[in-house]
Amino acid sequence: MTAPAPVPAPGGPPSAAAMRAYVTGLAAAVREAVLAARHRHGSRLVRGLSPGGDAQFGLDEVAEAAVWKYIAGHDLPVAVYSEDRGLQYHGADPAHLLVVDPIDGTRPAVAGLESATVSVAVARMAKRPRIADVEHALLMELRTGAYLYGDLTTPGITAYGYDHPVPALTRTTDPARMFWSLEFNGHPARLMTEAYGHLIDLSANTGGVFVFNSATWSISRLLTGQLDAYVDIGNRLLRDDPALLPEFERVGNGRVLHLFPYDIAAAVFLAERAGAVVTDAYGQPLGSTVLTDLDVGNQRSCVAASTPELHRALLASVRWKE
Fold first, then answer.
1. pLDDT of 123
2. What are the C-alpha distances in Å from 190 to residues 26, 44, 81?
């Protein structure tokens, strides 16, 4: 379903059009492999843990293999940081770093649900590249192949495969009316409901509350106009009260499972270019997040909203620990 375009030629830096074709082709290759394997025996079995500590399913292995098959089949030298394989290199002296989450939303993917994407962000190679250094970003829906793409050379974002114009951000400002998603994976439910249970109660009937298990899907739904906000505050709760560490480790396979760079790199770039407001739970920009560091100190919280008014209301309404 992806639009045809030329792949980057060897020699010299790729043009913006060529890089778009490259990352779109990569995502399409992952999608094809995942769709072919999703019903195989073992696709939903946990095979181990990723370097960050998240459960690695059989379908994740298929997606990671597809990433490297595609990259090895092209002459473009790149460094690649992926969820399960960490930092690896293809070719000599790569000018670009690809930050790839082959399946953001593995649990929905293995369950056959729609809330899963292939996420690819591209930054210039540097000693400590950050989200602020991202130059190209792509989110492709696994089920449909529809995608959102943006780069620094073109204003806004490009959408392909949707049945309506995108971006289509809502104008919602009232938390009681918001359609929003939140995160529970690796987050103690008690702490989450203490912090924003009242917002769930407020909006569950006159708006909508969803748990998608995918940050990229949730943030991308702001761009399609299906959601008004996305909230993941676990990392702020831990930063505010380090004594909560054992509780987060208890529900995270002995690790802290907050937002990793590959979870949000592409989504933040696209959402900001589309006009959404995206910060951490302190209201600070996410651009300083290092793309290749999974340490707890580099993990993030996120509050994203379709309007500045709703974003401010969310930050003010969450019950932060004194």
1. 97
2. 39, 27, 33
Using the Cα atoms of residue 233, residue 235, residue 236 and residue 238 in order, give the sign of their dihedral.
positive
Integer Cα distance of 218 and 184 in angstroms:
13
Alpha helices of 4-94 — where are they, by DSSP H?
16-37, 58-72
The CA angle 247-250-253, to the nearest 5 degrees, is: 140
Query: So what's the pLDDT on residue 321?
Result: 82
CA 221 to each of CA 16, 19, 96, 235, 297: distance values in angstroms, whole numbers, following the listed order: 25, 24, 28, 22, 28
pLDDT of residue 237: 97
Residue 75 CB-density burial (10 A; 0-12 exposed, 13-18 middle, 19+ buried):
exposed
Which pair of tokens denotes residue 7? Answer: 């792949």
Query: In terms of pTM, does the model score above 0.85?
Result: yes
Where b means 16+ CB within 10 Å and e means fewer, 199-230 reads beebbeeebebeebbbbbbbbbbbbbbbbbbb
Q: What is the pLDDT of residue 5?
A: 43
Instruction: Please give the C-alpha separations between residue 74 and each of 91, 132, 135, 235, in angstroms, as whole numbers.
Output: 10, 27, 20, 38
**Which DSSP state fits 113?**
-
Alpha helix ranges (H) inside 95-134? 106-110
Indicate the SS3 state at residue 313. Answer: helix
According to the model, what pLDDT value does residue 1 have?
Answer: 42
Report the pLDDT value the prediction gives residue 90, as an integer from 0 to 100.
Answer: 95
> Residues in the chain, how many?
322
- pLDDT under 50: residue ranges of the chain: 1-6, 9
Local structure of residue 20 (DSSP, 8 states): H
Q: How many CB atoms lie within 10 A of CB 289?
A: 20
Cis previous bond, 167, omega within 30:
yes
